[in-house]
Amino acid sequence: MAELLMGIDIGTYSSKGVLCLPDGTVLAVREVEHGLSLPRPGWAEHDPEEVWWCDCATICRDLLRQAGATGREVRALAVSGIGPALLPADADGRPLRPAILYGIDTRASEEIAWLNSTYGADELYSLSGMHLTSQAVGPKLLWLRRHEPEVYARTRYVYSCSSYLVYRLTGEYVLDYHTASHFNPLFDPRRLEWSPRFAEPICDLGLLPRLAWPTEVVGVVHSRAAGETGLAEGTPVTAGTIDAVAEAISVGVVSPGDLMLMYGTTLFFILVQEALVPNPKMWVTAYALPGTYALAGGMSTTGAITRWARDNLARDLLERELAGGERAYAALSWEAESSPPGAKGLLLLPYFQGERTPIHDPEARGVLAGLTLSHTRGDIYRAIMEGTAYGVRHNVETMRQTGAQPGRLVAVGGGTKSPLWLQVVSDVTGLPQEVPELTIGASYGDAFLAGLATGVVPGIDSLRSQWVRGIRVVAPNPELASLYSEGYELYLQLYERTRDVVHALGKIAG
Fold first, then answer.
1. Which residue ranges does the record assign to the Carbohydrate kinase FGGY N-terminal domain (predicted)?
2. What residue spans define the domains of the chain?
3. Best label site of 180, 234, 300, 374, fewest CB within 10 Å?
């Protein structure tokens, strides 16, 4: 009987799954799209049943059907998902409200301010190794307790995306160490345990799950989940993790100095480190493998802006695609290629839903500066790519300020389908990027973790020797270094000089 490995990942706008052989050979891939709820400015939510669980169950069944396999042939399953998210559930594990998503949801700004004022930002930082931001789950739990006390009173479980899927599959209540790192100020990353130090006003620590590594099997598929997914009862399931970690694993980002750039709806950075070295403008977390840490960061809206541009500025191209023509994104990229570097004097701040690292400003907003009547849609689309690239440079420069030196850069995610975007990022940062031939994404990393946890994959070395294949390098154009260095300085100035104005505009919009 075949020993197949399955990985499932839940993203912001879509979910994806893969079924593999132990050597990384892909037998089936399935992707389904879903919606994102934005009920108020600064809020972002998912329905955990209709999005998370239904996508997971559907993809499991479809993968087996595509591969002509049975559930009994799946040796192990690992899951990942957007995070950190907050989903309160009752004593029966039933969700009590829609899930509050990761850093793009900025509703807990007042709670962050209160915690900083009450305990001191430096004291909070001394425990978590990172300052409170919209990425942190602790302030969102406090928001829940303050604004929805009846929900908090009924809460017995606190899930993130992957931990909810693990619960639905196995009945086990467990969270991985990386995701737990983002539950600050409730987690001690040095001791790798929940901390009572600042917990009293936020939540009872007894509500929080037990902790494990993504490389650990934490339970097996129970009968009800087997009936819904097509998997066999008793199939091992790992602890799961955040999608960015699984994506980094999928392309071999496991050694100190390896840096992943994940081009998705948001852009996420993970730099693998041997020790926990805090950086006040980035996130410091446990990583996927025991004994490793990560210096991480995230931009709130990158691919989301290209989607916004497609849906609002290029409806003609989208209609043409729906009628069987060229993909709208490809057509937009072609238009952007006709615009010269510098986008004819346009400069974009990509803060359409606030920003996470390194400015940590939930009230930031997008700015497009330099518009004239001569500018075209292609110029605007190029400015979007260049603006997100300046954001990448800002994060990398911030990492370097505390001595962290990115070595090998690996690009992953849906955005790698755009050769222009990859080239612009390398040109702006001055850094080469490795792009593996096979970039299925987080679900591929999940499948590897499932194999590693069960011994079907013999060791971590199998990742680079078998699973990661056909790497190409996107090299920066040195002739553009001066132009983009000037643009980067203007990018930094534009934020500083427009910050107060956009904050005021955000209050008007709210």
1. 5-248
2. 4-251+436-467, 303-435+477-509
3. 374
